[in-house]
Design a protein that fits this description.
single chain; mainly alpha
């Protein structure tokens, strides 16, 4: 069975290490978008006084910030930028 993976905007004929960098850049951009959206949700919950929802989203954002930090460290270690 052959499995085909579509990699939008990624040249699959380059070195595997470069493919990994490109894939991580795509995922990093998705993470940045998700963090931005969650920050807006957080602001809405704060404004509406929904304390429990605010805490839950805030806790998940803390984890997302840690993941963003790990991504940035990985990019630094690979000698590239996100």
């Amino acid at each position: 069975i052959e499995q085909v993976i579509i990699l939008d905007g990624i040249d699959t004929h380059i070195h595997n290490g470069n493919i990994l960098i490109d894939l991580n850049k795509v995922e990093f951009r998705k993470l940045e978008t998700f963090i931005s959206r969650q920050e807006k949700v957080l602001s809405t919950y704060r404004a509406k006084g929904k304390d429990e929802q605010f805490r839950m989203v805030s806790d998940s954002l803390d984890l997302l910030f840690k993941l963003r930090f790990r991504f940035k460290n990985w990019f630094d270690g690979m000698g590239c930028t996100a």
